[in-house]
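Notes from hallway chat w/ T.B., transcribed later so I don't forget. T.B. wanted the structure written out for a chain they're using in a teaching module, and asked if we could keep both sequence and structure tokens in one place. Agreed to drop them here.
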Amino acid sequence: MIAEAVQDASMSFKKVLIKRALGAELGQHLGYPRGAQRQSVRPISAAMARAPRPC
């Protein structure tokens, strides 16, 4: 019984550890933490920011 409890606790610990590690890796890869808004990839250039000229 004690061996099973130790094994269950070990598996639970490993599961949490792996989830946290993968979450951190994904946050590093994407550049923003989970649940945060995505930031724009490219800033708008000056040419795109100007309104079209009237004819």
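Follow-up for T.B.: DSSP finds two helices and no strands in the chain. Might be a good example for the class.
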